[in-house]
């Protein structure tokens, strides 16, 4: 799924918290909302270093998120809410990846059996492909669904950020396949001396 979809899904967690506890920071200031969005993005920071393995922890993030959310519910400060929402969003991202496509650079072909790595189980979780690949039309639909409650509950900078994320998502959906075609041509044209600096998965999938 798109990074923006994950970020918007994370923000939904902040919406839920703000609805349940409207007097807390989650419902009054944007910092916990930003933390939730960053938590939704964080696992994908491993894009060029063992993607969906290095920073993806579907079990461990979930284990950490549960007590953090409990603490935030009892002591709802800006810090506790931000930490809890960050961890919960990172956990949600890691779990959601199992419902998308595989790791191949052309995931619409459905050739990969690796969706996300579970460090707890010591193995790759296979893709279920409910959302066929990042940037698929249904991925954009999911982003819109996740954005809707946030647009309803929040205004100001949060609302603007969500609308920007939707715009980026729509553009990515349009450009997703053309970008791969261009990237493949670039890789094919690179000399061997340069290819050694390109992550292996980009080279292997194209050659």
Automatic annotation (TrEMBL):
The keyword Membrane applies. The chain crosses the membrane at residues 60-87. Keywords: Membrane, Transmembrane, Transmembrane helix. It comes from the Archaea. This is LexA-binding, inner membrane-associated hydrolase. It comes from Halopelagius inordinatus.
